[in-house]
C-alpha cells in the first residue's frame, strides 16, 4: 500500500499485483495446456495414419 492506503503493484518485490492477475494467468496456462494436448493428439493420429499407409518393403527397394 502507498501512503494514502491505496494498493499498489508490488510485482518487482515478488508479490502478485492482484488475485485477478493470477486467475488470468491460470486460465491462460490451462488454455495453453489444452492447445498443446490437442496438437500432440493430432500429431499422434497423423503418425499412426502414416504408419498404416506405409508399405514396409518400399524402403528396402533400390530406387534405380
UniProtKB/TrEMBL annotation:
Skewed-composition ranges (Basic and acidic residues): 46-64
Domain of life of the source: Bacteria
Region (Disordered): 1-26, 43-64
Protein name: Uncharacterized protein
Amino acid at each position: 500500500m502507498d501512503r494514502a492506503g491505496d494498493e499498489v503493484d508490488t510485482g518487482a518485490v515478488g508479490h502478485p499485483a492482484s488475485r485477478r492477475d493470477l486467475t488470468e494467468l491460470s486460465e491462460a496456462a490451462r488454455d495453453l495446456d489444452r492447445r498443446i494436448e490437442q496438437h500432440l493428439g493430432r500429431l499422434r493420429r497423423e503418425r499412426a495414419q502414416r504408419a498404416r499407409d506405409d508399405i514396409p518393403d518400399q524402403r528396402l527397394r533400390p530406387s534405380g
